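Quick one: C-alpha coordinates for this chain, please?
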Amino acid sequence: MHLKTITTAVLAGSLLASPGWSQDDTEFTIPENQAATASQLAEAGLESDLAWDIVESLTTEIGPRLGGSEAEARARDWGVRTLTELGFANVRIEEFEMPYWERGELDVAIVSPFPQAMAATELGGSAATPEGGVTAEIVFFESFDDLQDAPAGVLEGRIAYINDRMVRAHDGAGYGPANRKRSLGWIEAQARGAVGLLIRSVGTDSHRMPHTGNMSRVTENTLAQGSLSDVAADYVRATYPDLAEAPARSQIPAIALSAPDADQVERIHRMGEAMEVSLRASGGWQSTTTSGNVIGEIVGRELPEEIIVIGGHLDSWDEGTGAVDDGAGIAITVAAARLIAELPENPRRTIRVVMFGAEEVGLLGGFDYAQRYADSLGDHVVASESDFGAGPVWRLSSNVSADGTAAMDEILRIIAPYGVIRGERAGGGGGPDIIPMAMRGVPTFRLEQEGSDYFDLHHTPDDTLDKIDPDELAQNVAVWAATVYLAAELDVEFRTADEQAGRD
Protein backbone atom coordinates (compact mmCIF):
# COMPACT_ATOMS: atom_id res chain seq x y z
CA MET A 1 0.00 0.00 0.00
CA HIS A 2 1.34 3.45 -0.88
CA LEU A 3 2.18 5.47 2.21
CA LYS A 4 -0.37 8.16 1.49
CA THR A 5 -3.23 5.69 1.06
CA ILE A 6 -5.43 5.64 4.12
CA THR A 7 -9.14 4.94 4.48
CA THR A 8 -11.52 7.52 5.85
CA ALA A 9 -12.41 5.21 8.73
CA VAL A 10 -8.81 4.69 9.78
CA LEU A 11 -8.06 8.39 9.49
CA ALA A 12 -11.09 9.31 11.60
CA GLY A 13 -10.14 6.75 14.20
CA SER A 14 -6.58 8.03 14.36
CA LEU A 15 -7.71 11.59 14.89
CA LEU A 16 -10.19 10.71 17.60
CA ALA A 17 -7.72 8.45 19.39
CA SER A 18 -4.90 10.96 19.20
CA PRO A 19 -4.04 12.14 22.73
CA GLY A 20 -3.24 15.66 21.64
CA TRP A 21 -6.25 16.43 19.46
CA SER A 22 -7.47 19.90 20.39
CA GLN A 23 -10.32 19.78 22.89
CA ASP A 24 -10.12 23.25 24.45
CA ASP A 25 -11.72 26.54 23.52
CA THR A 26 -8.77 27.75 21.43
CA GLU A 27 -9.68 27.63 17.76
CA PHE A 28 -7.62 28.19 14.68
CA THR A 29 -8.51 28.00 11.03
CA ILE A 30 -5.94 27.71 8.27
CA PRO A 31 -6.95 29.92 5.34
CA GLU A 32 -8.16 27.83 2.42
CA ASN A 33 -5.46 29.02 0.01
CA GLN A 34 -2.67 28.20 2.50
CA ALA A 35 -4.13 24.78 3.24
CA ALA A 36 -4.29 24.07 -0.48
CA THR A 37 -0.66 25.13 -0.94
CA ALA A 38 0.44 22.91 1.94
CA SER A 39 -1.37 19.92 0.45
CA GLN A 40 0.19 20.62 -2.96
CA LEU A 41 3.62 20.71 -1.35
CA ALA A 42 2.98 17.38 0.34
CA GLU A 43 1.92 15.80 -2.94
CA ALA A 44 5.03 17.19 -4.63
CA GLY A 45 7.15 15.79 -1.81
CA LEU A 46 5.83 12.29 -2.43
CA GLU A 47 6.95 12.52 -6.03
CA SER A 48 10.32 14.16 -5.40
CA ASP A 49 13.63 12.30 -5.63
CA LEU A 50 15.65 15.22 -4.29
CA ALA A 51 16.10 13.88 -0.76
CA TRP A 52 17.41 10.58 -2.12
CA ASP A 53 19.81 12.43 -4.43
CA ILE A 54 21.10 14.50 -1.49
CA VAL A 55 21.71 11.59 0.89
CA GLU A 56 23.21 9.52 -1.92
CA SER A 57 25.61 12.34 -2.72
CA LEU A 58 26.62 12.92 0.90
CA THR A 59 27.21 9.27 1.78
CA THR A 60 28.98 8.50 -1.49
CA GLU A 61 31.14 11.58 -2.00
CA ILE A 62 32.00 12.15 1.66
CA GLY A 63 31.25 8.92 3.51
CA PRO A 64 32.03 8.73 7.26
CA ARG A 65 32.55 12.21 8.77
CA LEU A 66 33.49 12.25 12.43
CA GLY A 67 33.05 15.65 14.08
CA GLY A 68 36.25 17.68 13.77
CA SER A 69 37.81 15.41 11.16
CA GLU A 70 39.10 16.26 7.70
CA ALA A 71 36.09 14.38 6.30
CA GLU A 72 33.69 16.60 8.23
CA ALA A 73 35.48 19.64 6.76
CA ARG A 74 34.87 18.22 3.28
CA ALA A 75 31.24 17.67 4.28
CA ARG A 76 30.92 21.37 5.14
CA ASP A 77 32.22 22.29 1.69
CA TRP A 78 29.74 19.80 0.23
CA GLY A 79 26.97 21.46 2.24
CA VAL A 80 27.84 24.92 0.94
CA ARG A 81 27.96 23.63 -2.62
CA THR A 82 24.65 21.77 -2.27
CA LEU A 83 22.74 24.67 -0.72
CA THR A 84 24.16 27.13 -3.25
CA GLU A 85 23.28 24.95 -6.23
CA LEU A 86 19.75 24.57 -4.88
CA GLY A 87 19.31 28.35 -4.72
CA PHE A 88 19.35 29.03 -0.98
CA ALA A 89 20.26 32.53 0.18
CA ASN A 90 22.92 33.61 2.69
CA VAL A 91 24.77 30.30 2.47
CA ARG A 92 27.63 30.22 4.98
CA ILE A 93 29.75 28.19 7.37
CA GLU A 94 29.88 29.25 11.01
CA GLU A 95 33.00 27.64 12.48
CA PHE A 96 33.80 26.77 16.07
CA GLU A 97 36.69 25.09 17.87
CA MET A 98 36.32 21.70 19.51
CA PRO A 99 38.35 18.95 21.23
CA TYR A 100 39.05 16.08 18.86
CA TRP A 101 39.05 12.37 19.67
CA GLU A 102 40.30 9.92 17.06
CA ARG A 103 39.78 6.16 16.89
CA GLY A 104 42.87 4.00 16.77
CA GLU A 105 43.55 0.31 16.32
CA LEU A 106 41.76 -2.18 18.54
CA ASP A 107 42.16 -5.84 19.44
CA VAL A 108 39.92 -7.55 21.99
CA ALA A 109 40.09 -11.26 22.80
CA ILE A 110 39.10 -13.77 25.43
CA VAL A 111 42.34 -15.27 26.74
CA SER A 112 40.76 -17.90 28.98
CA PRO A 113 38.93 -20.17 29.46
CA PHE A 114 38.04 -20.34 25.74
CA PRO A 115 40.49 -18.22 23.66
CA GLN A 116 38.88 -16.31 20.80
CA ALA A 117 38.87 -12.87 19.21
CA MET A 118 35.84 -10.60 19.64
CA ALA A 119 34.23 -7.97 17.40
CA ALA A 120 34.38 -4.67 19.27
CA THR A 121 34.69 -0.92 18.89
CA GLU A 122 36.10 1.88 21.02
CA LEU A 123 33.62 4.31 22.53
CA GLY A 124 34.13 7.97 21.77
CA GLY A 125 36.47 9.43 24.37
CA SER A 126 38.09 6.10 25.22
CA ALA A 127 41.68 6.16 26.48
CA ALA A 128 44.39 4.02 24.96
CA THR A 129 45.79 1.02 26.77
CA PRO A 130 49.40 1.08 27.92
CA GLU A 131 51.85 -0.09 25.26
CA GLY A 132 51.49 -3.84 24.99
CA GLY A 133 47.85 -3.74 26.06
CA VAL A 134 46.03 -4.96 29.17
CA THR A 135 45.17 -8.50 30.20
CA ALA A 136 42.89 -8.87 33.20
CA GLU A 137 39.97 -10.72 34.71
CA ILE A 138 36.43 -9.64 33.85
CA VAL A 139 33.96 -8.76 36.60
CA PHE A 140 30.48 -9.35 35.17
CA PHE A 141 27.65 -6.92 36.00
CA GLU A 142 24.20 -7.78 34.72
CA SER A 143 23.19 -4.12 34.67
CA PHE A 144 24.51 -0.61 35.07
CA ASP A 145 22.61 -0.45 38.37
CA ASP A 146 24.57 -3.47 39.61
CA LEU A 147 27.84 -1.69 38.87
CA GLN A 148 26.60 1.38 40.74
CA ASP A 149 25.83 -0.81 43.75
CA ALA A 150 29.35 -2.25 43.80
CA PRO A 151 31.72 -1.04 46.56
CA ALA A 152 34.87 0.99 46.02
CA GLY A 153 37.94 -1.02 45.09
CA VAL A 154 36.04 -4.09 43.86
CA LEU A 155 37.48 -3.65 40.34
CA GLU A 156 41.06 -2.95 41.31
CA GLY A 157 43.22 -4.30 38.47
CA ARG A 158 40.20 -5.83 36.73
CA ILE A 159 37.99 -5.10 33.73
CA ALA A 160 34.32 -4.20 34.30
CA TYR A 161 31.75 -5.72 31.97
CA ILE A 162 28.16 -4.38 31.83
CA ASN A 163 25.55 -6.54 30.11
CA ASP A 164 22.34 -4.42 30.02
CA ARG A 165 20.25 -5.31 26.96
CA MET A 166 18.39 -2.62 25.06
CA VAL A 167 14.62 -3.00 24.58
CA ARG A 168 13.41 -2.51 21.01
CA ALA A 169 10.72 0.19 20.65
CA HIS A 170 9.27 1.99 17.65
CA ASP A 171 9.99 5.37 19.24
CA GLY A 172 13.44 4.47 20.59
CA ALA A 173 12.29 4.55 24.21
CA GLY A 174 14.73 1.77 25.14
CA TYR A 175 17.78 3.82 24.19
CA GLY A 176 18.00 6.07 27.24
CA PRO A 177 18.02 3.30 29.87
CA ALA A 178 20.46 1.13 27.89
CA ASN A 179 22.72 4.05 27.06
CA ARG A 180 23.64 4.80 30.68
CA LYS A 181 26.34 2.14 30.56
CA ARG A 182 27.90 3.77 27.51
CA SER A 183 27.73 7.35 28.72
CA LEU A 184 28.49 6.92 32.43
CA GLY A 185 29.91 3.41 32.80
CA TRP A 186 33.52 4.57 32.51
CA ILE A 187 33.12 6.90 35.50
CA GLU A 188 31.69 4.15 37.69
CA ALA A 189 34.32 1.62 36.58
CA GLN A 190 37.24 4.01 36.91
CA ALA A 191 36.10 5.06 40.39
CA ARG A 192 36.36 1.44 41.55
CA GLY A 193 39.86 0.88 40.20
CA ALA A 194 39.09 -0.81 36.85
CA VAL A 195 41.78 -0.99 34.17
CA GLY A 196 39.17 -1.17 31.42
CA LEU A 197 35.46 -1.22 30.62
CA LEU A 198 33.57 -3.54 28.30
CA ILE A 199 29.87 -3.13 27.58
CA ARG A 200 27.28 -4.97 25.56
CA SER A 201 26.87 -2.79 22.49
CA VAL A 202 23.97 -0.36 22.81
CA GLY A 203 21.59 -1.32 20.04
CA THR A 204 19.03 -3.88 18.92
CA ASP A 205 20.83 -5.73 16.12
CA SER A 206 22.08 -9.30 16.32
CA HIS A 207 25.07 -8.93 14.02
CA ARG A 208 28.76 -8.48 14.72
CA MET A 209 28.32 -4.76 14.15
CA PRO A 210 29.16 -3.06 17.47
CA HIS A 211 27.57 0.29 18.29
CA THR A 212 29.92 3.15 19.11
CA GLY A 213 28.98 6.54 20.60
CA ASN A 214 30.30 9.23 22.86
CA MET A 215 30.87 8.91 26.58
CA SER A 216 29.73 11.69 28.87
CA ARG A 217 32.24 14.11 30.29
CA VAL A 218 32.13 14.91 33.98
CA THR A 219 30.69 18.33 34.81
CA GLU A 220 28.90 19.88 37.77
CA ASN A 221 25.71 19.19 35.86
CA THR A 222 26.52 15.46 35.75
CA LEU A 223 26.94 15.46 39.50
CA ALA A 224 23.88 17.61 40.15
CA GLN A 225 21.61 15.24 38.20
CA GLY A 226 22.29 12.48 40.70
CA SER A 227 23.03 10.01 37.92
CA LEU A 228 26.27 8.80 39.54
CA SER A 229 26.63 6.54 42.54
CA ASP A 230 28.09 7.93 45.76
CA VAL A 231 31.33 6.02 45.03
CA ALA A 232 31.69 7.67 41.62
CA ALA A 233 30.63 11.13 42.81
CA ASP A 234 33.12 11.04 45.69
CA TYR A 235 35.84 9.85 43.34
CA VAL A 236 35.14 12.62 40.85
CA ARG A 237 35.17 15.39 43.45
CA ALA A 238 38.39 14.07 45.03
CA THR A 239 40.18 13.58 41.71
CA TYR A 240 38.94 16.66 39.86
CA PRO A 241 38.45 19.46 42.43
CA ASP A 242 38.13 22.09 39.69
CA LEU A 243 35.83 20.64 37.08
CA ALA A 244 35.57 23.90 35.14
CA GLU A 245 39.30 23.93 34.42
CA ALA A 246 39.90 20.19 34.16
CA PRO A 247 36.80 18.33 32.97
CA ALA A 248 37.31 14.60 33.52
CA ARG A 249 37.90 12.29 30.61
CA SER A 250 38.25 8.55 30.73
CA GLN A 251 41.64 7.29 31.86
CA ILE A 252 40.77 3.71 30.87
CA PRO A 253 39.89 2.03 27.57
CA ALA A 254 36.11 1.80 27.11
CA ILE A 255 34.94 -0.68 24.52
CA ALA A 256 31.62 -2.01 23.18
CA LEU A 257 31.28 -5.67 22.19
CA SER A 258 28.96 -6.67 19.37
CA ALA A 259 25.77 -8.39 20.51
CA PRO A 260 26.89 -11.93 19.51
CA ASP A 261 30.22 -11.46 21.28
CA ALA A 262 28.42 -10.13 24.35
CA ASP A 263 26.30 -13.28 24.19
CA GLN A 264 29.50 -15.31 24.32
CA VAL A 265 30.66 -13.48 27.43
CA GLU A 266 27.25 -13.99 29.03
CA ARG A 267 27.23 -17.73 28.27
CA ILE A 268 30.70 -18.23 29.70
CA HIS A 269 29.70 -16.31 32.81
CA ARG A 270 26.59 -18.47 33.23
CA MET A 271 28.86 -21.53 33.14
CA GLY A 272 30.57 -20.23 36.25
CA GLU A 273 33.91 -19.83 34.48
CA ALA A 274 36.31 -17.03 35.35
CA MET A 275 37.20 -15.01 32.27
CA GLU A 276 40.39 -13.25 31.34
CA VAL A 277 40.39 -10.77 28.47
CA SER A 278 43.14 -8.95 26.61
CA LEU A 279 42.66 -5.40 25.32
CA ARG A 280 44.87 -3.34 23.05
CA ALA A 281 43.54 0.06 22.01
CA SER A 282 45.27 3.16 20.64
CA GLY A 283 42.47 5.72 20.29
CA GLY A 284 42.65 8.97 22.19
CA TRP A 285 42.33 12.74 22.33
CA GLN A 286 44.21 14.82 19.77
CA SER A 287 44.77 18.56 19.48
CA THR A 288 41.89 21.02 19.24
CA THR A 289 40.35 21.22 15.79
CA THR A 290 37.59 23.00 13.87
CA SER A 291 33.99 22.08 13.16
CA GLY A 292 31.11 24.26 12.02
CA ASN A 293 27.47 24.65 11.08
CA VAL A 294 26.44 25.10 7.45
CA ILE A 295 23.48 27.43 6.96
CA GLY A 296 21.22 28.41 4.08
CA GLU A 297 17.99 30.42 4.07
CA ILE A 298 14.74 31.13 2.30
CA VAL A 299 14.27 34.78 3.23
CA GLY A 300 10.78 35.71 4.42
CA ARG A 301 8.84 38.08 2.19
CA GLU A 302 7.14 40.02 5.02
CA LEU A 303 8.89 39.10 8.28
CA PRO A 304 12.46 38.20 7.32
CA GLU A 305 13.68 38.73 10.89
CA GLU A 306 11.40 35.95 12.19
CA ILE A 307 13.16 32.59 11.84
CA ILE A 308 11.94 29.01 11.46
CA VAL A 309 14.92 26.70 12.10
CA ILE A 310 15.00 23.21 10.60
CA GLY A 311 17.85 20.84 9.81
CA GLY A 312 19.84 17.78 10.74
CA HIS A 313 23.41 17.07 11.78
CA LEU A 314 26.13 16.85 9.17
CA ASP A 315 28.65 14.75 11.09
CA SER A 316 28.44 11.01 11.64
CA TRP A 317 30.35 8.33 13.44
CA ASP A 318 33.35 7.08 11.57
CA GLU A 319 32.51 3.42 11.00
CA GLY A 320 29.42 3.71 8.76
CA THR A 321 28.57 6.30 6.11
CA GLY A 322 26.00 8.06 8.27
CA ALA A 323 23.02 7.45 6.01
CA VAL A 324 20.26 7.11 8.59
CA ASP A 325 22.19 9.09 11.23
CA ASP A 326 21.92 11.70 9.99
CA GLY A 327 22.34 12.00 6.25
CA ALA A 328 18.63 11.31 5.97
CA GLY A 329 17.77 14.24 8.25
CA ILE A 330 19.93 16.59 6.19
CA ALA A 331 18.31 15.33 2.98
CA ILE A 332 14.73 15.51 4.28
CA THR A 333 14.92 19.07 5.58
CA VAL A 334 16.90 20.46 2.65
CA ALA A 335 14.55 18.83 0.13
CA ALA A 336 11.46 20.05 1.98
CA ALA A 337 12.78 23.60 2.13
CA ARG A 338 13.69 23.48 -1.55
CA LEU A 339 10.10 22.56 -2.44
CA ILE A 340 8.90 25.60 -0.47
CA ALA A 341 11.44 27.79 -2.28
CA GLU A 342 9.91 26.77 -5.61
CA LEU A 343 6.56 28.41 -4.71
CA PRO A 344 5.63 31.60 -6.61
CA GLU A 345 6.53 33.63 -3.52
CA ASN A 346 8.50 32.99 -0.36
CA PRO A 347 6.58 32.40 2.87
CA ARG A 348 6.11 35.30 5.31
CA ARG A 349 8.89 34.23 7.66
CA THR A 350 12.46 33.14 6.96
CA ILE A 351 13.20 29.42 6.87
CA ARG A 352 16.75 28.72 8.02
CA VAL A 353 18.18 25.30 7.22
CA VAL A 354 21.07 24.31 9.50
CA MET A 355 23.45 21.40 8.92
CA PHE A 356 24.74 21.12 12.49
CA GLY A 357 28.36 20.12 13.05
CA ALA A 358 29.80 17.79 15.69
CA GLU A 359 26.46 16.61 17.08
CA GLU A 360 27.65 13.11 17.84
CA VAL A 361 30.39 14.29 20.17
CA GLY A 362 28.29 16.51 22.42
CA LEU A 363 25.76 18.61 20.44
CA LEU A 364 28.59 21.07 19.83
CA GLY A 365 26.99 22.63 16.77
CA GLY A 366 23.70 23.06 18.59
CA PHE A 367 25.37 24.75 21.54
CA ASP A 368 27.43 27.00 19.27
CA TYR A 369 24.30 28.05 17.38
CA ALA A 370 22.39 28.89 20.56
CA GLN A 371 25.33 30.91 21.89
CA ARG A 372 26.05 32.67 18.59
CA TYR A 373 22.42 33.74 18.17
CA ALA A 374 21.68 34.30 21.85
CA ASP A 375 20.66 37.93 21.25
CA SER A 376 18.24 37.04 18.46
CA LEU A 377 16.72 33.79 19.73
CA GLY A 378 13.66 35.84 20.65
CA ASP A 379 13.02 36.12 16.92
CA HIS A 380 13.21 32.35 16.44
CA VAL A 381 9.57 31.41 15.99
CA VAL A 382 9.85 27.60 16.18
CA ALA A 383 12.55 24.98 15.58
CA SER A 384 12.86 21.30 14.72
CA GLU A 385 15.46 18.76 13.63
CA SER A 386 15.14 15.49 11.72
CA ASP A 387 17.45 13.04 13.50
CA PHE A 388 15.86 9.62 13.88
CA GLY A 389 16.60 7.94 10.58
CA ALA A 390 14.51 7.63 7.45
CA GLY A 391 11.43 5.74 8.63
CA PRO A 392 8.02 7.31 7.91
CA VAL A 393 6.73 10.15 10.06
CA TRP A 394 3.86 8.85 12.17
CA ARG A 395 3.28 11.49 14.85
CA LEU A 396 3.40 15.28 15.26
CA SER A 397 4.36 16.57 18.71
CA SER A 398 4.87 20.17 19.77
CA ASN A 399 5.75 22.44 22.66
CA VAL A 400 4.26 25.79 21.74
CA SER A 401 1.70 28.34 22.94
CA ALA A 402 -2.04 27.67 23.16
CA ASP A 403 -2.59 29.47 19.86
CA GLY A 404 0.37 27.62 18.36
CA THR A 405 -1.03 24.32 19.62
CA ALA A 406 -4.37 25.01 17.95
CA ALA A 407 -2.50 25.79 14.74
CA MET A 408 -0.51 22.55 15.04
CA ASP A 409 -3.77 20.67 15.53
CA GLU A 410 -4.99 22.10 12.22
CA ILE A 411 -1.68 21.34 10.51
CA LEU A 412 -2.23 17.76 11.64
CA ARG A 413 -5.48 17.64 9.65
CA ILE A 414 -3.47 18.38 6.48
CA ILE A 415 -0.69 15.85 7.08
CA ALA A 416 -2.90 13.14 8.63
CA PRO A 417 -3.67 11.55 5.21
CA TYR A 418 0.03 10.65 5.02
CA GLY A 419 -0.20 8.43 8.10
CA VAL A 420 0.43 10.99 10.86
CA ILE A 421 -1.38 11.30 14.20
CA ARG A 422 -1.16 13.95 16.94
CA GLY A 423 1.31 13.43 19.75
CA GLU A 424 2.28 15.46 22.78
CA ARG A 425 1.08 19.05 22.92
CA ALA A 426 3.24 20.25 25.82
CA GLY A 427 6.53 18.43 25.68
CA GLY A 428 7.47 17.48 22.14
CA GLY A 429 11.21 18.14 21.87
CA GLY A 430 12.62 19.51 18.65
CA GLY A 431 15.56 17.11 18.34
CA PRO A 432 19.06 16.90 19.87
CA ASP A 433 20.64 19.99 18.29
CA ILE A 434 17.52 22.01 19.09
CA ILE A 435 17.89 21.36 22.85
CA PRO A 436 20.28 24.27 23.51
CA MET A 437 17.96 26.84 21.91
CA ALA A 438 14.85 25.22 23.44
CA MET A 439 16.49 25.68 26.83
CA ARG A 440 16.51 29.40 26.02
CA GLY A 441 12.81 29.51 25.21
CA VAL A 442 12.55 28.69 21.51
CA PRO A 443 9.30 26.76 20.83
CA THR A 444 9.66 23.35 19.18
CA PHE A 445 7.82 20.72 17.20
CA ARG A 446 8.84 17.20 16.23
CA LEU A 447 7.82 15.06 13.29
CA GLU A 448 8.40 11.69 14.93
CA GLN A 449 9.49 8.77 12.79
CA GLU A 450 8.92 5.04 13.01
CA GLY A 451 12.19 3.70 14.40
CA SER A 452 11.72 0.04 15.28
CA ASP A 453 14.89 -0.86 13.38
CA TYR A 454 16.76 2.42 13.88
CA PHE A 455 19.00 1.02 16.60
CA ASP A 456 19.90 -1.95 14.41
CA LEU A 457 21.91 0.57 12.41
CA HIS A 458 22.58 3.59 14.63
CA HIS A 459 26.32 4.23 15.28
CA THR A 460 27.34 0.97 13.57
CA PRO A 461 29.24 0.10 10.36
CA ASP A 462 25.85 -0.98 9.00
CA ASP A 463 24.55 2.61 8.74
CA THR A 464 24.69 2.79 4.95
CA LEU A 465 22.56 4.09 2.09
CA ASP A 466 20.99 0.75 1.17
CA LYS A 467 19.06 0.80 4.47
CA ILE A 468 16.94 3.78 3.33
CA ASP A 469 13.60 3.17 1.61
CA PRO A 470 13.08 5.90 -1.05
CA ASP A 471 9.29 5.93 -0.61
CA GLU A 472 9.57 6.37 3.16
CA LEU A 473 12.12 9.12 2.63
CA ALA A 474 9.71 10.88 0.26
CA GLN A 475 6.90 10.63 2.84
CA ASN A 476 9.14 12.51 5.25
CA VAL A 477 9.73 15.25 2.70
CA ALA A 478 5.99 15.52 2.03
CA VAL A 479 5.12 15.94 5.71
CA TRP A 480 8.02 18.28 6.44
CA ALA A 481 7.28 20.52 3.44
CA ALA A 482 3.63 21.02 4.41
CA THR A 483 4.38 21.55 8.11
CA VAL A 484 7.29 23.95 7.68
CA TYR A 485 5.52 25.98 5.03
CA LEU A 486 2.54 26.52 7.32
CA ALA A 487 4.75 27.36 10.31
CA ALA A 488 6.43 30.00 8.18
CA GLU A 489 3.25 31.32 6.55
CA LEU A 490 0.53 31.28 9.21
CA ASP A 491 -0.29 34.36 11.27
CA VAL A 492 0.17 32.70 14.66
CA GLU A 493 2.40 33.25 17.70
CA PHE A 494 4.05 29.98 18.73
CA ARG A 495 5.63 31.46 21.86
CA THR A 496 3.82 31.47 25.17
CA ALA A 497 2.96 34.79 26.83
CA ASP A 498 5.97 34.42 29.17
CA GLU A 499 8.29 33.72 26.26
CA GLN A 500 6.92 36.70 24.34
CA ALA A 501 7.53 38.91 27.38
CA GLY A 502 11.09 37.65 27.57
CA ARG A 503 11.58 38.41 23.88
CA ASP A 504 10.24 41.94 24.30
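The first strand starts at residue 89 and ends at 98.
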